[in-house]
Amino acid sequence: MPGLRRPLRHEVRRLACPAGHAFDIARHGYVNLIGGRRRHHGDDVRMVAARERFLAAGHYRPLSSALAELVAAHAPAPDGVVVDLAGGTGHHLSAVLDAGPRRYGLCVDASTAALRRAARAHPRAAAIGADVWASLPVRDATAGVVLSVFGPRGVAEIERILAPGGVVVVAGPCPEHLEELGRLVGGVGVDPRRPERLAASLRRFECLERRTVTARIRLGHEEVHAVLAMGPSARHLSEDRLGAAVAVLPERVEVTVAVEIAVHRLG
Ligand SMILES: C[S@@+](CC[C@H](N)C(=O)[O-])C[C@H]1O[C@@H](n2cnc3c(N)ncnc32)[C@H](O)[C@@H]1O
Fold it and tell me: Does residue 43 have its Cβ closer than 6 Å to ligand 1?
């Protein structure tokens, strides 16, 4: 989008750029910079509501805590901006900001439903609608930390926006993550070559730390429904099929959480 590399001016209820573009601040508090024909819409209302329910129940708290610890350990400074790419409802970004009282956050996502939540997720966070495969609405060399949790990311733009010494913290599923539920719905498995693909995409970066967060969680039917409805299975399963798959489960199911977090700095 032309003009977005130049600073936006905060006017009454909108952001304006020197080239004459203006972007309204939505009633819910976010600004959507995705104009014209969208290539990516992000998660729909149903998926976002399911994600919000599941995360609010605290099942991924160990993941949020690990992200906050790793940011505190490796960020170049205790202040500055944390940009959460495809940050969804802003849940993990909030945990990072709670642990870093001098940091500010920017949640970037393509989903309007997610942005509505993210705009209210934390008093020190803002939410921006943008496609993370395209140009990011962030100035060169300004982000101390970029987070990428279970979402898409464009590495060239991460390189551009990272401040000197800045780090990118990427979290994604291990093959055994939620495997009990994947079998149930014939769901989308985790690519076993994910670690190699990640290393190749970040080849210009130095890996500072890798950590695997593992837990066994016990879920009732509503929680199983939520975790399936917020993930990739939701895209190929109707509400009826999802409900039917969950209905035949025992009352409580034990499920594996296994997420790998990698912290990289531009070499
Ligand atoms: C699996 S969710 C993860 C959300 C969040 N990081 C978390 O862990 O709670 C993936 C997110 O990516 C967003 N998304 C998908 N494609 C996108 C794109 N091209 N640009 C921006 N966001 C995108 C979706 O809307 C969704 O919020």
Answer: yes
Is pTM beyond 0.85? Reply is yes
Tokens of 1: 């989008």
Distance 250 CA to ligand 1 centre (A): 31
> What atom in ligand 1 is closest to the CA of residue 111?
25
Distance CA 12, CA 28 (A): 15
User: Which pLDDT band, with edges at 50, 70 and 90, does 3 fall under?
Assistant: very low
Sequence length of the chain is 267
Measured from the Cα of 42, ligand 1's closest atom is 25
pLDDT tens-place string over residues 63-106: 999 999 999 999 999 999 999 999 999 999 999 999 999 999 99
| Helices 239-247 & 221-229 angle (0-180, nearest 10) | 140
**For residue 67, what are its two tokens?**
């992200």
| Domains (range + CATH), the chain | 9-266 (3.40.50.150)
pLDDT at 187: 58
> Which residues in 24-57 are b (16+ Cβ under 10 Å) and which e?
ebbeeebbbbbeeeeeeebbeeebbbbbbbbbeb
Q: What is the pLDDT of residue 112?
A: 95
> Is residue 196 over pLDDT 60?
yes
Q: Mutation test of ligand 1: which of 111, 128, 213 has the most ligand atoms closer than 8 Å to its C-beta?
A: 111
- Residue 116: partners with Cβ closer than 8 Å, 6 or more residues away: 26, 28, 29, 30
Phi, psi dihedrals of residue 56, rounded to the nearest 5°? -65, -25
